[in-house]
């Protein structure tokens, strides 16, 4: 059986997740779409033992299983409803929601709670992005930040971050996107980025930068183009350029003051939003960690990363 469907409108969301009970049932159905299975012995006979803590105990071997294990909700004392609504807001709010807005929308008494929820949901944006791009891909690198972009932290000192972008060609439009901070624009770095984002066999479009040479030896059909060959009014790599300029606008408008340490998190968030721009409601499941296999983030990991 597939995972339970996701709601298609805010009204449907409200109707479906109006109570703790409803969220609990959805959580259970997402974790065990075919009914409870004990992870220790495979038994399907379970008795609910601690309703509020969402614990189930196997009737055969006694193993206790938490319904929130492996999700972002694990180990927190926040009501499921708060998590569900936070994931909904983060997934559907365009171009993104701040901790302050989240605090207000969910009527949370502490800003820190909203911030922590937001960081946890953001971390869930990383894991699903590992599949390699296929078909035809534009690859480019660009600078982000520096004085004119008004970013705080490390890059206020005129320091810019080099970002690699890889984006699928889908007819006149764009497919999936990958972004990654790069150490430099040397050949080994750009090759590693290409191999980390794009499947061998793909047609790879780049500009004429020397560092891109040799991609054909790595199993790609490399089609470099010189800037001089581009007609006036035409873009060399139009999809990559569109993604990059949208990213810059988004970083500037929503996330002023991104430090070096947080940059990868924001790049991941941007990629997540870009790749799910057609199905934002489906993204709420992914944000909650329902059906995902990655480990939930602890407060320690987040605060250490923020430091
Ligand atoms: Zn068991």
Strands, helices and their partners?
Elements: H1 10-16, H2 20-31, E1 46-50, E2 55-58, E3 64-66, H3 80-92, H4 99-105, H5 111-123, E4 136-145, E5 160-170, E6 173-182, H6 187-197, E7 203-207, E8 221-225, H7 238-254, H8 263-275, H9 283-288, H10 299-306
Parallel strand pairs: 4-7, 7-8
Antiparallel strand pairs: 1-2, 2-3, 4-5, 5-6
Helix pairs in contact: 4-5
The structure holds zinc ion.
In short:
This protein has helices spanning 10-16, 20-31, 80-92, 99-105, 111-123, 187-197, 238-254, 263-275, 283-288, 299-306, and strands at 46-50, 55-58, 64-66, 136-145, 160-170, 173-182, 203-207, 221-225.
Tell me, what's the shape? Answer: elongated
Per DSSP, the total helix count is 10
Task: List the helices and strands in order.
Answer: HHEEEHHHEEEHEEHHHH
Count of β-strands: 8
| Spatial strand order of the main sheet | 6-5-4-7-8
CA(first)-CA(last) distance:
43 Å
Please give a structural write-up.
- There is one protein chain.
- The strands form two sheets. The chain has a five-stranded mixed beta sheet with strand order 6-5-4-7-8, with helices on both faces.
- It has ten helices and eight strands.
- With 307 residues, the protein is an alpha/beta fold.
- The chain has helices at residues 10-16, 20-31, 80-92, 99-105, 111-123, 187-197, 238-254, 263-275, 283-288, 299-306, and strands at 46-50, 55-58, 64-66, 136-145, 160-170, 173-182, 203-207, 221-225.
- The longest helix is centred in the C-terminal third of the chain and has 17 residues, at 238-254.
- Bound molecules: zinc ion (ZN).
- Zinc ion is lined by residues 38, 40-41, 43, 58, 60-61, 63.
- The site of zinc ion has 8 residues, from loops.
